[in-house]
Amino acid sequence: MRSRFILLFACAAMSLPACRQHNTPMLMPKGSPNLFQNGLQQTAYVNILHTPGQSSLNFNKIALLRQITVPAGATVHIGDSLMETDKAYLLDWHSADYTYSNYVMRLPQNYQPFRHYPLEADSTVLLGGDPDLYRLYCLNGNGKATHWQSVNAYNAAGVSVWDTLMSKKYHSVYMDIVGQFYDTARLYPDQLPALLLKSDFTNTHFRPEKGSFTISAGDYILTNDLRPQAPLYSGSSDSLYLMRMKPGIGSANVELPYFLLVKTQTVPLK
User: Fold this and answer.
1) Bridge partners, 114 (sequence order)
2) How far apart (Å, rounded) are the C-alpha atoms in residues 180 and 184?
3) What pLDDT does residue 238 have?
4) pLDDT below 50 — which residues of the chain?
């Protein structure tokens, strides 16, 4: 039920009438998407990702196998020689300016993991869709992951309460190319970092007319725009706001304060 609460908050309390909902398929089909058709008016880049030395995918050890350049309006075909039979791969693509990508728009034909079988029929990946800001914020464009650190906190009036929080104010957030989110503030001291938050992007919303978006991960919400809930907005791809939802429906169930996160590191995709 928590995802329902978050969705209601994102659309009602934060006044997001133009919400677009995205689903992440988790099937593992056979075959290879070997044809890439670029419907954009700019160059696109397709990354074939894998886990080195393993036939299955380990999302914590994802690496770049190959990058394919697809000029605007072109269709590019790749052969079978690079990929191993019955090994799992993942497709990731983005436009040259990073505003078009499948980081959120994970449709079956252009993102889902697949196992390579060279005798299976080729499939076509269409590079297109609607622009958004997620990749610029969450992956810094061409990164594999980003690290974020809390530097301030605010009440509902947008007034800083950072100096009143003592040790509870420190959040270290990590987000990566497969939609995993960590927050070390919720770990016990004797534990190794564990996956605490998982965004499947089913509660992800973008308002292009305002340049604002939200990402729901567990009971957390990451956003660049808290208006009208609070007079807080980030126009920089290096800062976001973090808040937590309590059980219930509506803005009264937001757990204050709102934390301001700044991007401290980008892990390169290689």
Assistant:
1) 89
2) 13
3) 95
4) 1-28, 106-111, 187-196, 200
Supply the pLDDT for residue 110.
41
What are the residues whose beta carbons fall under 8 Å from the beta carbon of 170, sequence distance 6 or more? 149, 150, 185
pLDDT value of position 30: 57
Q: Which single residue is written with the structure tokens 């990073």?
A: 98
Q: What is the pLDDT of residue 18?
A: 36
Q: What is the pTM of this model?
A: 0.79
Q: Which residues contact 70 (CB under 8 A, 6 or more apart)?
A: 36, 37, 38, 43, 44, 45, 46, 76, 127
For residue 47, the model assigns a pLDDT of 92
| All structural domains of the chain | 2-19+138-268 (no CATH), 32-129 (2.60.40)
DSSP 56-84: S--GGG-EEEEEEEE-TT-EEE--STTSP
E-assigned strand segments in the chain: 32-38, 44-50, 63-70, 75-77, 88-95, 114-115, 122-127, 143-154, 172-176, 180-183, 197-198, 204-207, 212-217, 220-223, 239-245, 254-268
Structure tokens at 32: 């290879």
